[in-house]
Amino acid sequence: MTQQYARLTDSQWDEVKSFLPIGRKRKHDLRDVFDAILWVTRTGCQWRNLDRQFPPWQVVHYYFSKWSRDHTLETMNDALNRRERELVFARPSTPSLLLVDAQSVRLLPRIGHQQGIDGGKWVNGRKRSILSDTLGRVWRVEVHAANVHDGVAGLDLIYPDFTGQLPRAEKLVADTAYTGQFAAMMQRLDRVGFECSLRNPARRGFVVEPRRWVVERTFAWWNWYRRLIKDYERTVENSASFVLMANMQMVLSSLDRLVT
Predict the structure, then answer these.
(1) How far apart are CA 77 and CA 189, in angstroms?
(2) Looking at the chain, which runs of residues are DSSP E strands?
(3) What pLDDT does residue 188 have?
(4) Are 68 and 44 in contact (CB under 8 A)?
(5) Residue limits of the Transposase IS4-like domain (predicted)?
(6) pTM, whole model, 2 decimals?
(7) Which residues contact 125 (CB under 8 A, 6 or more apart)?
(8) Which whole-number Å values give the CA distances from 184 to 52, 102, 190, 193, 194, in the listed order?
(9) Contact predicate 150/120, CB 8 Å
(10) pLDDT tens across 69-96, in order?
(11) Burial annotation 52-77 (CB, 10 A radius, 16+ → b, else e)
(12) Of 60, 216, 247, 8, which Cα lies nearest the Cα of 139?
């Protein structure tokens, strides 16, 4: 991870521009707009304090919200994950083993939409549930109030049937928080197995759980993206989109290293 944000390279822009409407002439270049969203994701800057090297913040925020609503960012994230698996790691485009987990984060004051208290972690805010592969890349993300149980919040990750997006999925691994409604839903997906990673009760303190440490590492990577340290978004859709932006920035850096 670089210490300072660097603007999009030509090779990185080539990876994303096909998903954006760049066909007609515009007052503001969409490359600068997308670059500005990545910059906000990395630095955590307020929209109104967007650096002058980028288009006006109102323009950048408009496109970010638009691409969040019309699922452009989800489509782009999915395609970039596939390219990285094929080109960088020489693996099939979609994973066969998936991991699910949730992270509770504090919410900016005066935002009451989808807000709750996670009693187990004493966090007043929201919960991010993610579906990741064994490389730590995020394939799906859903955001709920923090008081929603992990197993209930995770249902949106697999409903509707996620195997349409991930056709090679064979097994999904989670912790014991997902043994209730989530496990029951997984039983209906006969083609995808479900496994709970159980902690050895005889061991004290911090224990690295097989496989599941990967998704915990993904949460740790987010510390480099200051926009994810706390939830600043008024809508859960924009909150989920910033998670995808952080994931895409990591994938684009990985693909760019392959080119250089």
Answers:
(1) 25
(2) 97-106, 116-118, 123-133, 138-145, 171-174, 193-196
(3) 84
(4) no
(5) 93-244
(6) 0.93
(7) 104, 105, 106, 107, 115, 116, 118, 146, 230, 231
(8) 51, 18, 11, 12, 10
(9) no
(10) 999 999 999 999 999 999 999 999 999 9
(11) eebbebebbbebbbebbeeebbbebb
(12) 247
- Residue 22 has which token pair? 């760049």
Q: Which two tokens stand for residue 5?
A: 């944000």
Tokens 């288009």 -> residue: 55
Class of domain 10-259: alpha beta
The reported pLDDT for the residue numbered 24 is 83
Within 10 Å of residue 152's Cβ, how many Cβ atoms? 16
Closest by CA to 138, choosing from 102, 181, 92, 183, is: 102
The model's pLDDT over 193-251, given as tens digits with 9 standing for 90+, comes to 999 876 655 556 545 566 778 999 999 999 999 999 999 999 999 999 999 999 999 99
Tokens of 171: 């097994």
- List, in sequence order, every residue forming a beta bridge with 127; answer none if it has no partner: 104, 144
CA quadruple 28, 47, 241, 155: dihedral sign? negative
Q: What is the pLDDT of residues 158-206, one digit of tens each?
A: 987 788 999 999 999 999 899 989 999 898 887 899 998 766 555 565 4
Domain-by-domain residue ranges, the chain? 10-259
Question: Residue 226 has which token pair?
Answer: 């200051």
Report CA-CA distances (Å) from 103 to 106, 162, 213, 215, 230.
10, 21, 14, 10, 11
The angle formed by the CA atoms of residues 5, 11 and 13, to the nearest 5 degrees, is: 70
